[in-house]
Amino acid sequence: MYPQVEPYDQGMLDVGDNQRIHYEVSGNPNGKPAVVFHGGPGSGLNTRWREDFDPDHWKLVLWSQRGCGKSTPPASDPQTDMSLNTTQHLIDDAEKLREHLNIEKWLVEGGSWGSTLALAYAIQHPHRVSEIIIPAVTAGRPEEIEWITRGLGLFFPDYFEAFQNGVPEEDRDGNLALAYNKLLNSPDRTTREKAAWDWNKWDLSTITGGDNDFEGTRYADPVMRYQLARTVTHYWGNDCFLEPTYIFDNLHRLKGIPGVLIHGRNDFGGPLTTAWEIAKRWPDAELVILNDAGHLIMEGNSMDQAIAAAIEKFR
């Protein structure tokens, strides 16, 4: 782990649609460029990523996607128009940021939702990507969303029952993400707050493998809780605004780009099969399977160590 140096450049980039995205650049101004696409959707940039990149070598770009972090307008405001927040918008924002920073090519890293976005970005702009690092691999397919919102009930039947009962009875057998998103956009504040609580309770339970009252997590903040729930359900309720097999159908466009896929065998929310299938179709990618890891990337765990090794590999 490297010292978490302060950014030498940061700002708000106007990307159109009355949207401004927040970014930070740290490390070596003349170093090898790298960018991190954060997960969520809706979590915002995490300064801890700086600790994985040697500040003497890398020019590291962190940014918050539309509606989250310091980017404006915030998804935590029920009045913010979420129709202007889609996967294609985020891909275009990343490209505008690259151009704004005068970067020709950069290493792209993204985990969880960030992996779907990173892959979609690289597919559209392969000539702007030097390498790709993907921990906790996802591809935004409908079956992946169905698994995390319903299939996991096989392992968590008690939590799933409470989660399913959080929406009206007529919506319980349909698209649960979309049903929750409707509640999160209700004009009634109490309805929105309860939906945010119920959604995140399910999300955290499946990630940690058990119950959690939000204490000591980002979900403890009701504003963050609402922002995350509203953004995630917006994307998952709309199949991540991608054609069902978009990532898989276009992996040939990554030919010649070296990559490392890192996945925990015990990842409940994102079964290993997605990473396995992508590795089969992307010959330039190495698949690292971690037998002792799940979905979370925590300081010092095997997922964190594997990411650090991949970054060092592409140094």
TrEMBL record:
Q: What is the lineage of its organism?
A: Bacteria, Bacillati, Actinomycetota, Actinomycetes, Pseudonocardiales
Organism per entry: Lentzea aerocolonigenes
Q: What is this protein called?
A: Proline iminopeptidase
Q: From which residue to which does any coiled coil extend? A: none
EC nos? 3.4.11.5
Q: Which family does it belong to?
A: Belongs to the peptidase S33 family.
AB hydrolase-1 domain location: 35-299
Biological processes annotated in GO: proteolysis
Catalytic residues as annotated in Swiss-Prot or TrEMBL = S112, D267, H295
